[in-house]
Specification:
Blueprint: E1 13-16, E2 20-21, E3 25-26, E4 32-38, E5 40-48, E6 53-61, E7 67-73, E8 79-82, E9 89-100, E10 106-114, E11 145-146, E12 149-150, E13 163-168, E14 178-184, E15 189-197, E16 209-213, E17 216-221, E18 229-230, E19 234-238, E20 244-250, E21 261-269
Antiparallel strand pairs: 1-10, 2-10, 3-9, 4-9, 5-8, 5-10, 6-7, 6-9, 11-12, 13-21, 14-20, 15-18, 15-19, 15-21, 16-17, 16-20
């Protein structure tokens, strides 16, 4: 790895292991290469198999040879730990140094890195390496902790998993009728939308679809006034500013007689 480099600022990046046995040694098969120098990291452990105890280190390197511990996880219920930012790194590894007991215990390790400090809205003081948010996973395996602190179970089954919905209106839907809806949170999303018509198309009002975050209209969506047709995929990048429903709605005019409106929305969290 180069010892001196000039780079632009890079946004957060996330790495993870597969489900691996908790055994002494490195848990990720290859080092996680950040591409540019980073200072801050967040490590979440998802544990199964009820080990009595273990120690997992998040280690960073700048030269590929010398590794330094930047965070430590040891809570058998799972937790999130933060690096202080004192040790810069270009690559990371998760390494288990000790494990006791359990029934074939396993762990998933999720790591998010950043060039800027993480901000916690709950759960402790930012960037203190002794901050622990315990039991970050609910009974369905949903990760409850993000770079923004403690959040609710529903926010991330997989932290970057897409959520989607498809809907079809009744004939001649009213203005503002919701066609498809997904719940999103205070992160950045790629939002893909497809709109169109069923057996009877709109006949009077062009582009009568809108994308909304809660009560705020974000975009007007174009659509061909053709029965049994759909638009090309429309892609937007959205920060909804909080926990809201992201919806595709009929626009400001009710549908013409017999018209059937259809929509699909897919939201994928980016950072």
């Amino acid at each position: 790895m180069p010892s001196n480099t000039t780079t632009s600022v890079q946004s957060n990046e996330t790495f993870s292991t597969s489900t691996v046995a908790i055994a002494t040694g490195v848990l990720n098969s290859n080092p996680w290469n950040c591409g540019v120098g980073m200072n801050y990291a967040e490590m979440t452990t998802v544990v199964a198999g009820t080990p009595t105890s273990f120690t997992i280190l998040l280690e960073g390197t700048y030269d590929g040879t010398n590794w330094a511990t930047i965070a430590t996880a040891s809570n058998v219920a799972g937790e999130t730990q933060y690096a202080t930012g004192a040790i810069p790194f270009l690559a990371l590894r998760a390494r288990c140094t000790a494990v006791v007991g359990g029934t074939s215990p396993t762990v998933n390790v999720y790591v998010t890195v950043s060039q800027t400090p993480f901000t916690l809205t709950a759960g402790g003081t930012s960037n203190a390496n002794n901050v622990a948010i315990t039991a970050p996973v609910d009974g369905n395996g949903n990760v409850k902790v993000s770079q923004q602190g403690a959040i609710t179970d529903a926010q991330t089954a997989n932290r970057y998993q897409s959520v989607s919905a498809t809907g079809t209106s009744t004939a001649a839907p009213t203005s503002g009728a919701i066609l498809a809806s997904v719940n999103v949170f205070d992160f950045y999303y790629q939002v893909d939308v497809v709109v169109g018509f069923g057996g009877t198309a709109e006949t009077t009002t062009a582009d009568n679809f809108v994308l909304k975050a809660g009560s705020t209209t974000l975009y007007t969506l174009p659509a061909n006034l053709v029965a049994n047709s759909q638009s090309q995929k429309l892609t937007f990048f959205v920060n909804p500013g909080g926990a809201v429903a992201l919806t595709v709605n009929v626009g400001g005019t009710g549908g013409s007689a017999g018209s059937i409106y259809k929509a699909t929305v897919v939201a994928t969290r980016l950072v």
